[in-house]
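Help needed: design a sequence for this.
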């Protein structure tokens, strides 16, 4: 997979899952809904395929620099024909360098080689990712089929004090009357 994409100096694409701490940090720092470490562990364990990008700063001569996880993307799938692309995220300070593109290229290449013909490959596209997904061939499914979610149940499942990311926060405030959440 390394040969498939070219990354700027210091970056490395790795196939597999990062640890739950890095996963949770990357989600929250890139503006996705924060998750607990326990949720992160379960999410990673249930992943069908994942890749992530590390960055190692240039050696400054004084100390050995360690690699940081700065980007990721994963596929949740049944291995047969249902696949959901999720957690496409790059830390803000590493965006616009082609990392998101490299992650999508790697993920789709894996699907091309491993998923059977007729596989149903979907994602929910938050605004920051839409151009990236379109560049990789994704199109809107509406009106033939529209994405639906049960926000009220999800809201109840949040841990006390757990914040919503900007996109989900926006959806909740637009879509839901708080009284309807309490009622479920
Ligand atoms: C969506 C996301 C993953 C894209 O990551 P990224 O690493 O910035 O993606 P890329 O660098 O491949 O592409 C982003 C843009 O930078 C441009 N770009 C790529 N390399 C570049 C470079 N060296 N110099 C300048 N621009 C560059 C691309 O052409 C692209 O431009 P466009 O937006 O006008 O089409 C990132 O914005 C993100 O993490 N957002 C927050 C989390 C999120 O909402 N994720 C989507 C969930 S559905």
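Sure. Designed sequence:
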């Amino acid at each position: 997979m390394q040969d498939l994409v070219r990354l700027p100096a210091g970056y490395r694409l790795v196939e597999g899952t990062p640890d739950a701490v890095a996963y949770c940090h990357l989600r929250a720092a890139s503006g996705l809904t924060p998750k607990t470490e326990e949720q992160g562990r379960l999410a990673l364990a249930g992943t069908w395929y994942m890749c992530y990008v590390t960055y190692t700063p240039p050696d400054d001569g004084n100390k050995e620099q360690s690699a940081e996880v700065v980007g990721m993307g994963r596929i949740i799938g049944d291995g047969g024909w249902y696949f959901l692309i999720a957690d496409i995220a790059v830390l803000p300070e590493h965006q616009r360098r082609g990392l998101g593109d490299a992650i999508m290229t790697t993920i789709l290449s894996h699907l091309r080689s491993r998923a059977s013909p007729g596989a149903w490959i979907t994602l929910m596209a938050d605004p920051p990712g839409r151009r990236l997904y379109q560049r990789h061939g994704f199109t809107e499914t509406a009106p033939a089929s529209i994405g639906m979610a049960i926000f009220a149940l999800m809201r109840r499942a949040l841990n006390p004090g757990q914040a919503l990311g900007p996109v989900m926060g926006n959806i909740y405030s637009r879509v839901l009357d708080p009284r309807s959440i309490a009622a479920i």
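The chain has a mean pLDDT of 89.
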